[in-house]
Amino acid sequence: xxxxxxxxxxxxxxxxxxxxxxxxxxxxxxxxxxxxxxxxxxxxxxxxxxxxxxxxxxxxxxxxxxxxxxxxxxxxxxxxxxxxxxxxxxxxxxxxxxxxxxxxxxxxxxxxxxxxxxxxxxxxxxxxxxxxxxxxxxxxxxxxxxxxxxxxxxxx
Length: 156
Description:
With 156 residues, this protein is α/β, with parallel strands linked by helices. The protein has one domain (3-149): Rossmann fold, CATH 3.40.50. It has helices spanning 14-27, 64-85, 99-110, 124-130, 133-140, and strands at 3-7, 31-38, 91-96, 114-119, 145-149. It has a 5-stranded parallel β-sheet with strand order 3-2-1-4-5, sandwiched between helices. Strand 1 (3-7), helix 1 and strand 2 (31-38) form a beta-alpha-beta unit. Helix 3 (99-110) crosses helix 5 (133-140). The protein is globular.
């Protein structure tokens, strides 16, 4: 194994995911890349015409500042995550688009041998309608996936 891609998000449990993924990568003497996905930043601050009788968006121009601010926040987050691991050799990658697809595309492009992700605790209803990123990736990848359980057990 040579390359380990660790997908993280803004959830505080990402600290555990990054740490466990990093430890595994170091034990395998593998290269490490932390990845975060901004889900279509064009939607942040998007302006729409009147629809369904609602005109709250009309008359406002596109707010590119909001999208740029989201990108800047994500870049700061990634730098902070890298600094937390205290290893200058850790790479970072910031993608935009649908999360599962972006992770799969970059994993292939970068040549990842292992994907590391956390398992968030979502409601049954949310899983039924949306699925989870981990489930979508497991359905479509040929790359082994290491899932880090992040849900606290009772009493922790």
